[in-house]
Design goal:
The protein is α/β, with parallel strands linked by helices. The chain contains 15 helices and 10 strands. Belongs to the bacterial solute-binding protein 1 family.
């Protein structure tokens, strides 16, 4: 009996240690770039002792999780946009997160109503307006982009890009599909050129006189204004004023970077601890500053540049789940009106 008890005790101890060892790591699949996450993940490990293993990729992570199924090593999915988070929910790849810490730190409109995704940073989809050719207050809303007065004066990237799909999705969510279609037709009629390039290329086009208005994410201003490697981008940034649309109504369209717990996460508790850490004040400040984004946690200090250029605007507080649910319809409208043609 003594030998049996000893063997049983050893087995229990081995099992306990194995579980503890497993709990001391968390595996992350990230669409976000390494330079944004590395300092935060190192700080998390230093604070908790939990090792973080990361796979970085620009695409294919949802398909990988789907293919791996119950055998996936991934605990967390990190994204740079609401789109992949919504797609992960639609594919049944994620599980709800329940955390009082997260609920306290992240406003409800930056969290899924069922807990299946969490916003970590936010950004605004703003209008860049020429300092020389657009008067202050001449444009104040997204709806005005369809005004014929702007014919031949607007630049944007592809309507099918995830950032524009979210904006169009928000127009559908607020106005209905029929009105959103009319608006998109109006914007298309006002384009200075075929949609092309990235958000920075649109601001460059303003500097070059190709157009007077452009759609772009707010953080690109910071990236351009502080770009020492390509100082010409500072000139692009200086050529445009920043317009935060719809301040007299619903507020400016917002998007997020975010996180989701995978459905078959092998280390769910450690994964939730990491998300909680990323929503706390210190991490929020570091995370947001690294990419000139806004912290989702209220009362978290902004970077000096954002505080100087962007403080005080009102963001749209519609739950992003309602916006993301319209992305497929947004894509159909882009095709229907031939926006990218």
């Amino acid at each position: 009996m003594t030998i049996r008890k000893a063997l049983l005790s050893a087995a229990i101890l081995s099992s306990t240690l194995g579980s503890a060892a497993q709990a001391e790591e968390v595996n992350v699949y990230s669409f976000r770039q390494e330079f944004l996450l590395k300092p935060l993940l190192e700080a998390f490990t230093a604070e908790t002792g939990i090792k973080v293993n990361v796979v970085f990729a620009s695409k294919g992570l949802l398909e990988r999780i789907e293919h791996e199924g119950r055998n996936t090593p991934a605990d967390l999915l990190l994204t740079a946009d609401i789109g992949p988070l919504h797609d992960a929910v639609e594919r049944d790849l994620v599980a709800p997160i329940s955390s009082e810490v997260i609920d306290r730190n992240v406003p409800a409109h930056f969290r899924a109503e069922d807990g299946k995704w969490i916003g970590l940073t936010s950004r605004a989809r703003i209008i860049y307006a020429s300092t020389e050719r657009v008067k202050e207050g001449e444009i104040t809303s997204y709806e005005e982009l369809a005004d014929p007065k702007w014919k031949g004066r607007i630049c944007t990237r592809s309507g099918k890009h995830t950032y524009n799909l979210s904006l169009i999705g928000s127009m559908i969510a607020h106005h209905g599909e029929a009105e959103a279609e009319k608006w998109l037709e109006g914007v298309k009629a006002n384009l200075a050129r075929k949609p092309q390039g990235n958000d920075r290329a649109q601001v460059k086009a303003i500097k070059e006189g190709v157009c007077d208005l452009a759609l772009g994410n707010s953080y690109y201003y910071g990236k351009m204004a502080t770009n020492e490697k390509e100082p010409e981008q500072k000139e692009w940034a200086a050529s445009a004023n920043l317009v935060f649309p719809n301040q007299d109504s619903r507020g400016t369209h917002m998007n997020i970077s975010g996180a989701a717990l995978t459905k078959y996460a092998p280390h769910p508790e450690a994964a939730v601890k990491l998300v909680e850490f990323l929503t706390e004040k210190k991490a929020q400040q570091l995370y947001a500053e690294a990419n000139f984004e806004f912290p989702v946690r209220p009362n978290t200090p902004w970077s000096d540049l954002l505080e100087e250029k962007m403080s005080g605007f009102k963001g749209d507080e519609i739950n992003l789940g309602k916006v993301a649910a319209q992305r497929a319809n947004a894509a159909k409208l882009v095709d229907k009106v031939g926006f990218d043609n």
